[in-house]
Known about the structure:
five-stranded antiparallel beta sheet
Amino acid sequence: MSVNQKIKCLVVDDEPPAIDVLVKYIEAVDDLELSATCSNAIEALGTIKHSSIDLLFLDIQMPQLLGTDFIRTLKNPPKVIFTTAYRKFAIEGFELDAVDYLLKPISFERFLKAVNKVLQTTFQAAANSQQFDTHGYTNADNFIYFRTDRKMVKVFLDDILYVESLKDYIKVITTSKQIITKQGITALEEMLPPDQFLRIHRSYLVPVKKIDSYTADDIQIGEKELPIGRMYHHEVVKTLKSAVK
């Protein structure tokens, strides 16, 4: 897959309202493209055989064949995000190497968290397979989507200067703008590459390579000084010391 191609999605669910929700969510994300919807696994099998599907949103509890059993029948299944109203299927879903497991009713924020996992791994793999002029390989296509002002905003990880927690919201400061979105900083931390981003305080998350200097009490990024929290101090100093070796 080229870094410029969209991820082709197939939605499989026996409940039309559930399909409608996922279709609306998919259409809200620029890098996703809805290829088809199916009401059962048998119908989905035909679609997968005749179409190129990158990502499958698959309900588990369906007539004729469970979604988990359907995946087992596929020799080379696409990436899968399971959707279900039953928590009991979660462990089985992850044992099948699912990207994520969405519990109905699915919120857009939770949907976006799952999709961001797919976007990061898919486009990074594509970027790593392509060379760019004399600089070899690039990470410029690492990005994440944030929902703000009723639209989806793509932010490249290389552009992030720091992230600040504002209770139920976060403020993402980049080299060109700032974005405020309803999301927890811990949830965002789990979505970012752990070797690139460092939690320095319960309210701050920073990209390691953007740190210009640090002391025992704070770090500096450009003209901005950010405090190092007491409970994060040991890990922060350990990470930064290892980074300069």
